[in-house]
Design a protein that fits this description.
The protein is 40% helix and 13% strand. By secondary structure, it is of the alpha/beta class.
Length: 421
């Protein structure tokens, strides 16, 4: 059986996470995704993070994580031939996917109205930082800015220390997920009604969707949650949350313990007197404790008395709400992730088999495929041009324009025309 998006053609002008991650999802479900890069390549090929070096033959981890399964093409999108090529590709595409700034796209002749006239069935999918309208629509954006304006930072961290960012690019990845949903919705609408349309989302908007419950709570009650110590700001009680263990590890715990288990929990830590406190002798009382500070400190002492592994043994019953906190190295080796296909392997130059996040949505009849990563900048350019009707001489002209732009970009320190993130 063919893949879900077999025959769907996508042209991607994407950078960083929000656009490329959406493109990779479509590619791994069978779409032909052509990723257009500037002559020197997407900036994220070269941003390796801090503290570790990698072989020069492999792109940086953020590029690897978000670009599997695509065909790679380089063009001078500001050059006459490059613009003409882009219009020809998009004229034959089902989806134009981008997270570049709209003003830059308009200058290149790639605005929605113009491309809709060129290809009325086109799905024009654009992700931005803060949304297409509003007072900060044009403001520069990285993932932390969306987390900050969307409110997530206000409830993350501890109340007695400065607020902190989440430890992952939640705004951009959630934005990518919403862009995927928007594209699929538009493709269904086109199947039913015969026309393409504009699809737009943003990292900021995705943060609001991510926090729909919490924002609705504030809307309905007038209460504004603040950051709390190791627990969701609207979660009840002082006996639940994230707690440190004796070996420097941590555990996540939601207290649903029976009186017998609560007594055993206190006893194993050498604090049997805590179980005799009538104000805390049921889970309901402990979860309703307000303020929770005294109980939280006592529970923290209990967890600090044993190692994380010892607590795993104590909470072996799978119906208890307990989980040891895993670090990234442990997640990559977690059989739960591996057996579900959430962690997979791809081959990378000079590195061999390398673990990556695989497909976390499974379809029984048209499953996605974890596809290899094309690493070499522009490696499919000639083939793509030829299959779109360009002659060998025209291909040479286009590539000469691209090479000339590449020389200019190196001299000027590189050029990216209008990324949002």
């Amino acid at each position: 059986m063919e893949s879900a998006f077999s025959g769907i053609r996508v042209v991607e002008l994407g950078i960083a996470i929000q656009g490329p991650l959406a493109g990779m999802y479509l590619a791994e479900h069978g779409a032909d995704v052509i990723k257009i890069e500037t002559p020197v390549g997407e900036e994220n090929r070269h941003h390796f993070g801090y503290g570790k070096s990698l072989p020069k033959a492999v792109p940086a981890p953020q590029f690897v994580a978000n670009n599997r399964g695509k065909r790679l093409m380089t063009l001078d999108a500001k050059g006459a031939r490059g613009r003409e090529v882009l219009r020809r590709l998009i004229g034959r595409a089902d989806v134009f996917l981008t997270n570049y700034r709209e003003k830059a796209l308009d200058r290149l002749g790639l605005g929605y109205e113009e491309l809709h006239r060129l290809n009325p069935r086109l799905i024009y999918a654009i992700a931005s930082g803060f949304g297409a309208k509003g007072p900060v629509a044009e403001r520069a954006m990285l993932d932390p800015m969306a987390q900050a304006r969307g409110g997530l930072v206000s409830v993350t961290g501890s109340p007695d220390r400065p607020q902190v960012l989440a430890g992952a690019a939640l705004a951009d990845t959630t934005g990518a997920g919403q862009l995927i949903v928007g594209i699929l919705t538009a493709l269904v609408a086109r199947e039913r009604h015969g026309v393409g349309q504009r699809v737009s989302t943003s990292s900021y908007g995705a943060q609001l969707w991510h926090q729909a419950f919490e924002l609705t709570y504030t809307s309905m009650t007038g209460h504004v949650p603040a950051s709390t110590e190791g627990i969701h700001p609207l979660a009840p009680g002082g006996s639940s949350g994230v707690f440190r263990t004796a070996d420097g590890g941590a555990v996540a715990f939601l207290d649903t313990l029976s009186p017998e288990l609560w007594a055993a929990f206190c006893e194993v830590a050498g604090k049997p007197e805590l179980a005799r406190e009538t104000r805390w002798d049921t889970a309901y009382k402990r979860l309703a404790e307000d303020p929770p500070d005294e109980l939280r400190s006592r529970v923290a002492e209990i967890f600090a008395s044993r190692t994380a592994a010892e607590w795993e043994d104590f909470f072996a019953d799978p119906y208890l709400m307990f989980q040891r906190v895993f670090d990234y190295a442990e997640v990559l080796e977690d059989p739960q992730a591996i057996e579900n296909g959430y962690i997979s392997e791809i081959e990378l130059p000079e590195m061999g088999n390398t673990k990556v996040v695989g497909n976390t949505i499974q379809l029984s009849e048209t499953p996605a495929e974890v596809k290899p990563l094309a690493c070499e900048l522009g490696m499919h350019t000639e083939a793509i041009l030829l299959e779109h009707g360009y002659s060998a001489d025209e291909v040479s002209d286009i590539q000469r324009e691209t090479e000339a732009a590449k020389s200019r970009e190196f001299q000027s320190g590189g050029l990216q025309f209008g990324s949002n993130d």
